[in-house]
Amino acid sequence: MEEKFYPVDLPSKLLPYQNLGVKEVSMRMLKGKDEKYIAELNVQNFEKKFMYLLKDSIKGIDPMELTIGDRMYILVWLSMNCYSKLYPIEFDCEQCLRKIETDVDLTVLDKVELPKEYKEPYAMKLPSGQVLNLKLLRVKDQIQYLDYIAQKQRDDILVKLALTVVDDQKNLLQRVEMLENLSTQDLGMIRAFHEKFYHGVKLETKYSCQHCGGAGLTPVPFRLDIIFPEGKTVAKSLNYNF
C-alpha cells in the first residue's frame, strides 16, 4: 500500500531553497519500523540519526538541505502528530521559586517564520564596508561542524560562521581565515544576521503557578523525549485511562 504524505507548512516558507527548485515538502506519519532509528537517538548521534529517519519519511527535499529552524519544526510536527501533543517539563516558578511540573501543549507553541522578502544568498554589508554573502545554517553544515568539534576536541564559533558564508572562491579554511581578520563589529553583524532570521518553533510557554498563583513565561527545554515520549505521555495525550 502506498504511504500517504502530508504537506508541511515550513516556517522558512521554502525561501532558502529556491535555487533547489523545492515546491513542496511533505511528511508521512511515523510507524513502528521508524523506532529503530528513534530508539537509538542520543545527544551524541542525534544530528545523523535523525537525518536518516527523515530521509525515509520526507518528500520534496533532501533533509541535509533543511535549515536548522525547519528541521526543528519538523521534529515538533512529527512528535505532536505521531505520538503526543503533550510534552512534560519541570521548572522553578520565577516568583516563589517552587518547582512546577506541567505538560506543554506543542500545538500552541508559536511558529516563527522568515519574512517573505528573505532570499539567499543574503548580501550583508558589514560596518567595515565589506559585503559578505550569507546563508542560514543547514543540517549538513551542523553535521560538518559537529564532526569538526569531535576531531579537534574544541568548539570554534568562527568555523560555524564560516559554514554560512557563501563564497565559491574560498574553501572553508580560507573563509575561517577571512573571518579571523574581521573586526569584532563585523563579526557581530554576521551573528545579528542569524538572530534576525531565526525561524522555527519558539520554545517558550506561558505558565501559572499552582503554589503562589503567579504567572510568567518559561523556556521549553529541548530533550530527546520530545520526539520519543514515554508511553504514559502518549496515553495521557489520548485521554486513555488504564
What is the topological layout?
Layout (H helix, E strand, L loop, with lengths): L4 E3 L18 E3 L6 H4 L7 H10 L2 E2 L8 H15 L3 E7 L6 E7 L5 E2 L9 E4 L5 E4 L4 H14 L4 H6 L9 H9 L3 H13 L3 E2 L2 E5 L6 E5 L11 H7 L5
Antiparallel strand pairs: 1-2, 2-3, 4-5, 6-9, 7-8, 10-11
What keywords describe this structure?
single chain; 242 residues; alpha+beta; 2 domains; three-stranded antiparallel β-sheet; two-stranded antiparallel sheet; 8 helices; 32% helix
Please, could you describe this protein's structure?
Strand 4 and strand 5 form a beta hairpin. The longest helix has 15 residues, at 68-82. The mean pLDDT is 93. The protein is globular. It is an alpha+beta fold. The strands form 5 sheets. A 3-stranded antiparallel sheet has the order 1-2-3, with no helix packed on it. It has a two-stranded antiparallel ribbon with strand order 4-5. It is built from 8 helices and 11 strands.
Brief summary of the model shown:
By secondary structure, the protein is α+β, with helices and mostly antiparallel strands. It is about 30% helix and about 20% strand.
The main β sheet shows up as: 3 strands, antiparallel
Give the CA-CA distance, first to last residue. Answer: 33 Å
How many domains? The number is 2
Give the spatial strand order of the biggest sheet: 1-2-3
Per DSSP, the total helix count is 8
SS class? alpha+beta
**Overall spatial form:** globular
> Mean pLDDT, as a whole number?
93
Q: What are the low-pLDDT stretches, counting only 5+ consecutive residues below 50?
A: none
